[in-house]
Amino acid sequence: MATATFKGGIHPPDKKELSKDKNILPTKPPKRVVIPLVQHIGAPCKLAVSVGQEVKKGDVVGTPEGFVSAPVHSSVSGKVIAIGDFPLATGRMVTSVVIENNNREEWTSLKDNPDYIKLSPDELKAKVRDAGIVGMGGAAFPAHVKLSPPKEKPVDVVILNGAECEPYLTADYRLMIERTQEVVEGLKILMKILGVNKGFIGIENNKPDAIEIMKNAVSGEPNIQVCELEVKYPQGAEKMLIKATIGREVPPRGLPMDVGVVVHNIGTAVAIYEAARYGKPLIERVVTVTGEGIKEPKNLMVKIGTLVSDLIEECGGFKSDAAKVISGGPMMGFAMYSLEVPVTKGTSGILVLPEEDIVHTDGFGPCIRCGRCIDICPMGLMPSMLSVLSEKGFYEETKDYNLFDCFECGSCTYVCPSKRPIVQLIRLAKSLVKP
Questions:
Q1: Which residues hold [4Fe-4S] cluster 1 (predicted)?
Q2: pLDDT tens for residues 113-135?
Q3: Closest by CA position to 145, among listed 50, 10, 42, 35
């Protein structure tokens, strides 16, 4: 299926050239890690260690307290030296475990099981749950929950999201290039857990080498197909990806499983393979450190809990004109006020922008009713009305314009000639009204 896509969307410069040819490299062992007990959507974890306790890599430091939750594990071996509230990239303070690394790299348990595919769907799902795997594209939704659809919503398709449409980021691209077979095996595990025989890998066609490599890898898999997608943001959003690859439309306020689909990220598929084969918990992930403000853009394999300041140092530090550091990409990421913030399971990238790429505004102008945000909204919403109502304090009225269908892709803010903070105003309304 060539150049499949969806209605709406935008075409920001992709800036992938800064890091796309950089192989994934392991980071230097961090002296200490700060591991938040909230790294996922859902219930926070319950503290499972105490100050002074010795831990190994893979030891559980936080246990889930609900079905929609995921355990948290130590990414290093060492001693717990502190427990307290530390900031996430969003600025939210959460209970975290600080572990001093003894550099012994001791694992609590890790065992190769080459016959993992012979395990039952329930056994494989249990491995995913126990490994603490969450969506690694940024949403951080517990993977085992997605793999447990209710009986009244049967799933017949699994889609791997290889679009990586967010500008600058290349973590998933490098995984497809360097760990191709593990991506495919992860998809096959997902298909077995869900009992489906149709798998798709959606990749934007600005990644021809990844498309070719993945097509070769699945050439002997009649139930798996690689779909070439048009280069357009936000092609990688779940609902857009489903529309582009198989032509199904998720209803308003609906979920992919409402149309018989489960979507997972490329990085998540690799983590699922590692959990099934080795029993390895999610304690590290690929992070793209990039941008015109960093001296040496890289794709790094980073231990969860590593501080952003360590990654900046690993990449040679800032250029003299570095002005802003963003966790994630420029469209949906969060500008950070401190570098003493840990990498979490959902940290896909660290972006450093120079002063020349930052637009400073003294306030923002009124909506001029140009309709550009309406034309490009991939969800068919009226972002202009949502922002105006929120700006005026009419928060309840925003629900009449399908407030909660917005997934905050930022396309509207990108095209607004008045430089209105449309997404921020929508987030404000969401925080003040009930769904």
A1: 367, 370, 373, 416
A2: 999 999 999 999 999 999 999 99
A3: 42
